[in-house]
Amino acid sequence: MKRTSLTLMTVGLLTGSLVLFSATGCETTQRADRDHASMNDASGAIEGSSVTMVVHGMGCPLCANNVDRQLKALPGVSDASIDLGSGEVKVQLADENRPTRSQLARAIQDSGFTLIRIETP
Per residue in 77-103, pLDDT tens? Predict the structure, then answer.
């Protein structure tokens, strides 16, 4: 009888863990404060043709898809390339209507991840 109770308890714990994982996604780091990322000149459009962002918390292709979708929805973003291993997101910008640092940061936040910094060449 004890063995059955232990098995049921183990199954319950595993099921609970799966439910928690599916509810929270695969984000592996806690979100930093919104002001954590470097946002110098956050209100002006980015002047370069590309930026590299360092993003924490992405761990699977679904994560990358969420970030990609949010970024490509921004006016002025022509393409995004995501490296899950390094957490780098390289964004190609259009010639017109380039986004601001704030808009890029918001897209990362809206996708559920933590923006560490934005680097311009």
Answer: 999 999 999 999 999 999 999 999 999
